[in-house]
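lol forgot to send this yesterday, sorry. struct tokens for the thing we talked abt
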């Protein structure tokens, strides 16, 4: 029987490219599990498009031990109706301080919008603190963790 493929949105913000690379890794994981994936920056996604997707992954750089303001704003602006019960997870790139605090905050924001947050998410160490330039890249091990996150997320959907 013909079954339509599931569709996922990996949405992120990234100033120096580390979270963007993390988003690509999560997308590879989802794709490896047979999901169709769009990878898009938050600035290019409007809230009413969310209902086109059955899976959501949100990524942000860690800034001041929390997600970037525009990511927070993006999540807060999502309609509960569109997010209700939708499997979702989070990821962040951080330079070594409080990446997991960022994950926690993003999970909480998504839950408040009624998403079904199914995994704790992944924080990868990359970049330099307070830097406006690209720093060290995520380790291959961390990239594999991101891919695994995508794969597991697909299975929860
Ligand atoms: C304003 C600002 C605040 C930051 N705050 C933190 C922080 O609290 N903890 C941390 O580990 N890294 C912090 N960083 C470093 C970034 O999280 C890190 O460089 C990350 O890889 C950047 O991701 P991006 O390339 O996707 O923008 C900060 C960077 C900037 C520019």
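and heres what i got for the seq, position by position
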């Amino acid at each position: 029987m013909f079954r339509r493929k599931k569709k996922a949105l990996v949405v992120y913000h990234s100033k120096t490219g580390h979270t963007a690379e993390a988003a690509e890794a999560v997308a590879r994981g989802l794709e490896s599990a047979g999901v169709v994936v769009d990878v898009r920056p938050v600035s290019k996604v409007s809230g009413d498009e969310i209902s086109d997707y059955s899976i959501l992954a949100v990524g942000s750089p860690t800034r001041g031990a929390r997600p970037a303001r525009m990511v927070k704003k993006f999540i807060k602006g999502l309609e509960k109706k569109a997010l209700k019960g939708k499997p979702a997870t989070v990821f962040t790139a951080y330079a070594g301080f409080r990446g997991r605090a960022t994950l926690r905050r993003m999970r909480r924001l998504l839950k408040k919008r009624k998403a079904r947050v199914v995994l704790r998410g992944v924080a990868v160490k990359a970049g330099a603190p307070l830097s406006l330039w690209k720093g060290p890249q995520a380790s291959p091990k961390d990239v594999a963790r991101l891919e695994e996150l995508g794969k597991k997320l697909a299975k929860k959907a």
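The radius of gyration is 14 Å. anyway ping me if u want another try
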